[in-house]
Amino acid sequence: MGFQNRRDFFKTSLLLTAGITGISSKKNKAASLDGPSENRMGVLVDTTVCIGCRSCEWACKTTHGLPTKPIDSYLDRSVYDKKRRPDEHALTVVNEYDNPNNPLLPTDVKVQCMHCEEPACVSACIVGAFTKHPEGAVTWDTDKCIGCRYCMVACPFQVPSFEYSKAVQPKIMKCDFCFERTKEGKLPACVEVCPTEALTYGNRNELIEIAKQRIKRQPDKYYNHILGEAEIGGTSWLYLAGQDFGKLDFPKLGRDPAPGVTEAIQHGIFSYFIPPIALFALLGSVMWINRSKNNGEEK
Amino acid sequence: MEYLMNPTPIKKKFITPGVVVLLILALNAMVFLAIRFFFGIGSMTNLDNQHPWGIWIAIDVACGVALAAGGFTSAALGHIIHKEEFKVILRPALITAMLGYTFVAIGVFVDLGRYYFIWHPLIFWNGTSPLFEVGLCVMIYATVLYIEFLPIVTERFIGHVNLKGRLSFLNVPLDAILRFLDRGLSKTMFVFIIAGVVLSTLHQSSLGTLMVIAGPKMHPLWQTPVLPLLFLISAIAVGFPMIIFESLLASRSLGLKPEMKVLSNLGRMVGPLLVIYLAIKIIDMAIRGTYVYLTEINTASVMFMLEVVLGVIIPLRMFFSEKVLNSRLLLFIAASLVVFGVFLNRINNFLVAYTPPYALNKYFPSIGEISVTIGFIAILVLLYRVIVMFFPVISIPDKKLMPKTKYAIRGEEK
User: Which of A257, B78, B114, B210 allows an S-S link to A233, with CB 3.0 to 4.6 Å?
Assistant: First the structure.
């Protein structure tokens, strides 16, 4: 390896530092996320009202252009024999659970993306293909995605799915909160079609109030917890149930936002690129000192 | 200054029975890769919506990056701390790192659903994503490694550019370009060497940050906010054992006598590094109280114990023993154990610890996934062989520079 003189060393180091600082200011801008907004929308799912008709599944597929059987076939309740998860063929599914309070009236739970207030997918995505919109929806951008599937590793609810069978342009599939429809002032397809008003679309803060009132009015009927109010920093979709959410296959999650620890580590390592530059400078000085020492001995 | 050892292309027959086996393994991988590219990832892997990452990420990428750490640890030792005695290991370590990172990139390429967008992280930035940082650092570091490799190319070809026939008019300009490169590189190489070390510390640690966001989906034995630190230290600790491991393997395969004195001096540094690693791991477990998970016997606790006992504690004891450091076989075993330990640790972190909430089945790699991973390793070994036979990488005693009787460190060349 070559031996540079001290002037070269100094010049090149300066240039490099300037270059990296230039990059860092850009990078920090890109990293900023929108804070929660007052007019954020959400959906309140009251599982005690849901009758498990699965109209929402049909409406979702129809709206998103996914192949579906005719709506009559959705009356078949044998699908409830198995627990299902949303996947690339169905962005939302309904599962049925035993109801300890009333065995004749099973609990039906609609599952889809929760649209977290501080989404792990948005934080994790290598190319920033996910966006948390001020109105609440978390959407995915096909033009950026590279198909690394890190969002699926990160998601605490294990929601995003991937089109494994496609060789070209496989998509990440998940509920988009009917972003295009709500932009035009329409309701999300599932909310619109629901015959029992198990789904309520509205301002998230107001929905929390409604949920609290329902629990207060019928404390026997409801389990005293609004799932999604505080879990992992809150979600746009909120759930009420007549029994413990753990029995309804919801993951046990704390109150801290999922990306919290990672972002703290990342920002620690990269605070304005100071630690890497400092390390570079330190190693540079060690190299310089040792090299001049060695050269001195040889001469 | 007197050169005892001089990097020289190794003259030996390329095709041996071992090479044929490696070629077959490589071909086998190509068949499965064709299926992957024509019919999608789902057609030949056991990945599903619950298990988005398999061995292509855990082995090809995570282990690949960790086991290529010899490149930056040796650069720090040889170039930055400037220990002359370790000069002989610099080039082999560099080649390993360069090939290692190349195959990390290829591993990612194969695993990406939209591989043709692999360059997207260059223009779509997301500063909160540790994967973005790993991706960018790996891209830049791989480039840096190729730049560090260039002086070996110029050394090989300056004054030896000898194109035949119609291309012969290129000989003079090519030689001039090489000489120009050589001069420019020797002035600026220090920037790339330091950058390589900085980039390595960054992405080696961020590889550990990757799984932190999985939160409760990861088994508490491995899930901890100090994962980036553990990843960095284990990468530094595995750097020298990996050099020892491959140096002993390569000298065996190429019929050279290994540079035992250098290797045992390298080994002397491994013990303390393993002590630091083990201490952090134990303190972290004590603080978070995760040792309770060791009282139950299941896959997680068994894998954890295997990793820590075989991969850390036993080699730790071995590397502190003079007998081990001076014995070719024992040193090889100790180094292999550390390599195995880091290998197991990365698999544990990315696969064993990952327990998605709605999984119906456990993930186990398909034959296709295993074939591709093994095939890539086979190609890597073959390329290493090609490079050391073609370029001056491995140092052997230079008879012109060395009185045979005085410096009989190495055996005869065959």
Answer: A257
Residue A18 domain boundaries: 6-32+261-298
pLDDT at B24: 96
Task: Establish if A2 touches chain B: CB-CB under 8 angstroms.
Answer: yes
CA-based nearest residue in chain A for residue B109:
A148
Domains of chain B: 5-397 (1.20.1630.10)
Strands (E), B359-402: 395-397
The alpha carbons of chain B give a radius of gyration, in whole angstroms, of: 22
Establish if A82 touches chain B: CB-CB under 8 angstroms: no
Chain B residues 145-184 within an 8 A CB cutoff of chain A: 151
Residue B340's Cβ-side half-sphere holds a number of Cα atoms within 13 Å equal to 18
Give the burial string for B172-192 (b: 16+ CB within 10 Å, else e).
Answer: eebbeebeebbeebebbbbbb
A223 occurs within a structural domain? no
Contacts of B209 in chain A (CB under 8 A): 262, 265-266
Say whether A1 and B124 touch across the interface (CB within 8 A): no
Query: How many domains are there within chain A?
Result: 2
Does residue A244 belong to any structural domain of this protein?
no
The whole-angstrom distance between B87's CA and the closest CA on chain A is 11
Distance from CA of A114 to the nearest CA of B (A): 15
Looking at per-residue pLDDT, the higher value among B212 and A294 belongs to B212
Token digits of residue B106: 């290829």
Verify that A61 and A113 share a domain, yes or no.
Answer: yes
DSSP helix/strand/coil, A82: coil
Q: What is the ipTM of this complex?
A: 0.88
Q: What is the pLDDT of residues A151-180, one digit of tens each?
A: 999 999 999 999 999 999 999 999 999 999
Provide the Cα torsion B300, B301, B302, B303; round to 10°: 50
The parts of chain B modelled with pLDDT lower than 70 are 1-4, 399-414
